[in-house]
Each structure stands twice: as C-alpha cells, then as structure tokens.
C-alpha cells in the first residue's frame, strides 16, 4: 500500500533543469557546498526555514553524506522538513521515499495525515510509501534517515517495534549504505515508562539495538548537543522544546 492511495496527491511536477552541486564541485570557487544549496532552496516553506536555526540542516546533510543521484528513505517524515531538503540534495536523478510507519497510521485512527510533499511543485522525485516489516521501496537505498522518531517506535511497539524498524532499514540499504538515527537524548538507563513520559531515549540503547541488527557504528555528530539540558524534562515543555540535547548516529551496512 502506498500513501498515494491515502492522499490521492496532485500530479507532481518535474524538477526539470534544477542543477545541484556534486561533492567534487563543493569546494570550487563561488560555489556553496551541496547541503547549503539545499537549505537555500527558495521552494522551502517559511515554516521550515524558521526551524533551521535549531535543526542545523546543513550539518545534518553533510553528516549523512547525501549526494546527488542517491536513493534516500526518510522514515517517519512528519510534515516533510527533511524530505524537502533531501529532495533538493539528491536532485532530479535521485529519489526520496517518505516512509510513514504503519504503527503511526494505525494510531491516527482515520485522522488525516500531513499533505504529501510529492504534491508540491518541483518534488517529482518524492514518493510516499507505508513502511511496516519492510520499507516498501522498490530499489536498494543509499541512506535511511529518521529524525526524532526512533523513540516513538519504541514507545508504540516496544523493543520488537524498533527491532522490526532496524531490520527493515538494514534490508532496504545497499551494502555500504548509511542509517542515520537522530533523537532526543534521555538519561542513561531510561526505562520504558520514562521514555513514554519524556519522549526521549537512552543513546546507548539505540546503539545496542541498531548494532544487533547487523549495522556497524560509522560516526557520531555533536551538532545538536546541548549540555544545558539535563534530559529530565519532557521534550515539549516550554523552554526546552527545540533545544533538547540530541544525539546523531551514523550506522553503516557492511
């Protein structure tokens, strides 16, 4: 089942002649790195741009090693903040699959999902799918990306839910492909009740679960760390919202 069956989106327009800088040209005189080009995309909504200061998207795309022509899975894309960035970064020869978890759809109980990014002008390389035991993507991907949602899968489906997610990510990737997990950091040893209350997760638990799926840890980013966050507040509380201490892990499929 695809989300197009749920949304019945408008026909997406082609990216046409949009030109993106490749990694080899990133350092050329007068040219910005690929990630900065994606962030500067004038098609991005103002609501997305307003979040850039907190989400540091250029650093995120650099860390994920996104390149033109890649196939990327944006797992649990929400309203499409990273879907749009990834769409611009991979360009017209690439593809982005916005994969909504079946667990999430089940919890919505018939409520409408956010409008599909594929229906926006110039987003012809975006495709909505529903992910369950598999990512439901027809080709092997270069990158699986998930941002601030790994803990939700653990809350809703327990360890079995995240085990299914990690296996689906592993199976969806080509050898050498990357799996990026970005989430709100919880205190060491945070239990399931604390996870559900705070919407945080212990970074060590994420590493343990993802490594058990066959991945190797390839890198960690400090770009969204906030030492002032003691990790005990619920992530939606005034004052800490959008300023939580967040870990960013890059795993690789051998």
UniProtKB/TrEMBL annotation:
Tell me which stretches of the chain form a coiled coil: none
Q: Which residue ranges does the record annotate as region Disordered?
A: 33-57
Residues spanning the signal sequence: 1-28
Keywords on this record? Methyltransferase, Signal, Transferase
Which GO BP terms sit in this record?
Answer: methylation
Compositionally biased, Basic and acidic residues: which spans?
38-57
Record keywords: Transferase included?
A: yes
Please name the GO terms that the record assigns under molecular function.
methyltransferase activity
InterPro entries of this UniProt entry? S-AdoMet-dep_MeTrfase_Alr7345 (IPR016980), SAM-dependent_MTases_sf (IPR029063)
> What is the protein's name according to its record?
Methyltransferase
Organism placement in taxonomy: Bacteria, Pseudomonadati, Pseudomonadota, Betaproteobacteria, Burkholderiales
């Amino acid at each position: 089942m695809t989300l197009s069956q749920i949304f019945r989106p408008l026909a997406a327009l082609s990216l046409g002649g949009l030109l993106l800088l490749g990694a080899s040209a990133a350092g050329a005189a007068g040219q910005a790195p690929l990630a900065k080009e994606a962030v500067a995309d004038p098609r991005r909504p103002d609501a997305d741009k307003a979040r850039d200061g907190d989400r540091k998207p250029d650093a995120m795309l650099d860390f994920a090693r996104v390149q033109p022509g890649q196939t990327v899975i944006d797992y649990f894309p929400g309203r499409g903040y990273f879907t749009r960035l990834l769409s611009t970064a991979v360009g017209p020869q690439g593809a982005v699959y916005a994969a909504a978890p079946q667990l999430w759809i089940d919890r919505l109980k018939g409520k409408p999902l956010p409008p599909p990014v594929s229906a926006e002008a110039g987003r012809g390389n975006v495709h909505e799918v529903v992910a369950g035991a598999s990512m439901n993507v027809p080709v092997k991907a270069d990158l699986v990306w998930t941002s601030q949602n790994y803990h939700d899968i653990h809350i809703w489906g327990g360890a079995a839910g995240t085990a299914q997610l990690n296996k689906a990510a592993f199976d969806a990737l080509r050898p050498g492909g990357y799996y990026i997990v970005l989430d709100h950091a919880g205190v060491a040893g945070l239990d399931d009740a604390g996870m559900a209350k705070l919407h945080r997760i212990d970074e060590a638990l994420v590493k343990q679960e993802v490594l058990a799926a066959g991945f190797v840890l390839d890198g960690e980013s400090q770009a969204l760390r906030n030492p002032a966050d003691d990790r005990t507040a619920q992530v939606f509380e005034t004052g800490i919202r959008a300023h939580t201490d967040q870990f960013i892990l890059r795993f690789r499929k051998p």
